[in-house]
UniProtKB/TrEMBL annotation:
This is Adenylyl-sulfate kinase. Pfam families: APS_kinase, ATP-sulfurylase, PUA_2. The keyword Nucleotide-binding applies. Catalyzes the synthesis of activated sulfate. It is an enzyme of class 2 (transferase). Its EC number is 2.7.1.25. The gene is cysC. One of its GO terms (cellular component) is cytoplasm. It comes from Roseobacter insulae.
Amino acid sequence: MSTPNLAPIPELFVSYDSAQKLKAEAGNLISWDLTPRQICDLELLMNGGFNPLKGFLTEADYDGVVENMRLADGSLWPMPITLDVNDAFAEGLEIGQDIALRDQEGVILATMTVTDRWTPNKAREAEKVFGADDDAHPAVNYLHNQAGSIYLGGPVTGIQQPVHYDFRARRDTPNELRAFFRKVGWRRVVAFQTRNPLHRAHQELTFRAAREAQANLLIHPVVGMTKPGDVDHFTRVRCYEAVLDKYPAATTSMSLLNLAMRMAGPREAVWHGLIRKNHGCTHFIVGRDHAGPGKNSAGEEFYGPYDAQDLFRTHQEEMGIEMVDFKHMVWVQERAQYEPSDEIKDKDKVTILNISGTELRRRLAEGLEIPEWFSFPEVVKELRRTRPPRNQQGFTVFFTGFSGSGKSTIANALMVKLMEMGGRPVTLLDGDIVRKNLSSELGFSKEHRDLNIRRIGYVASEITKNGGIAICAPIAPYATTRRAVREDIEAFGAFVEVHVATSIEECERRDRKGLYKLAREGKIKEFTGISDPYDVPQNPELSVETENVDVDNCAHQVLLKLESMGLISGNA
Ligand code: PPS
């Protein structure tokens, strides 16, 4: 299995001339505007990265993949690659109909013949594929709260690749990589998958893997979609480029993979292996907790640290790519080198050092030292450029609570206090202001409330990205929408959720705007807390009581919270 057949792999693209013709004809077809994740999936379907798939999964293939990781014809495939759409779009379609698949600018990338349309059992998909129907898993959260409710399946005809403007020279299709390996005579290639910046431990691990497999090394980072909150791929690629100089050029190469990860641990490892096999690699590194999604809602790991290695091992013969498994690498101070932690025999006599991802983020956030044994100065410099200390980053304070709970009043007081401190621009996105300026056409149905909060989230994320402070004060009654906004914002800075926990009885008693009276009389419909739901925040950064506490004190509690999170300090 370690001498690859580097002949070209089948792609789903038609010839240039046919593509031009098809593109003109496809202009008349019903179009689906692909989501960012679907664009990633489509790219790998079309270029052979997902070989043997010939399109988005049919219902029979989907059932097989979900139940036992196999397509209907028996081939191994662990991940459902599905085209999820909304009800309205699905209703208008007939089986056998061709549809155009467009990117977010409207460019037609492919057509698809719809052979299957079904309503998936998402709870089953979550249990079987991701191991638990728990929204704390990013892919389960996506499945329930972002993906459409209907799946379409059928063969895809590729017209053109999605356009990328960044790092073009670093992106390769499976056939481009295969051609490169043929050209340079690389017969054994070990791939390293990553969604994080490379530090010294990774370099040591990849060196050892290449040595162990007697293979050349392909650093193959994911630049499509990774776990919410990860370092953005622009920064990471600059970091990779800095580290690449540390490898002997003739033995190591780097290529970027536009994959949308699912963080599915064991299944994901098998999927990653198949994708690397398609890219012409013979070996694949699986480390500790491969593609791990973090903790579940009970605070426990979703998968065991070596589950991914175990599942890969079971299937590697059939996959045709060999695993190079690695244990956790740690720094042994006395020997000044990295060693796999389980191979250290004299643990009680040496000093073992390690900096976790969480600890690294803390040090970056607080502008603390990051030692040379841990990372390369070039990498640390890049990370510091993107992630300045928290007291220089933008952030969002998101108040949520019933109408009349005191959100706006506390938000106003907080704004003034922050402006008094100076340093960063402050914008207040109060419920009423937003409804006047951004959402004047919206009402209070679930759909409209979600749209309203999404808009607030979008503006707040832009403010946060650009180093400002956004203070939001809508009711925001739905936990899933608040979570989505949190994820958007946390890509750029902190999200501080403050629950203004005034009880509904107290709000009604105060009834500042007289709205509760009208709601009781049925003159205002869908009124939060009276005739419409409110999901109480389960883990807000702060919860403030307003009964018998004055506004100044409430705003002060928020300031103290911001200070304890390192977001404000003496000189910022
Ligand atoms: S939401 O649910 O987050 O989109 O609501 P929001 O944009 O914050 O708007 C809430 C303000 O609109 C007034 N209002 C209502 N609130 C709740 N339910 C219904 N049906 C409703 N109709 C009008 C109310 O004055 C809210 O103002 P605040 O500032 O929260 O008191």
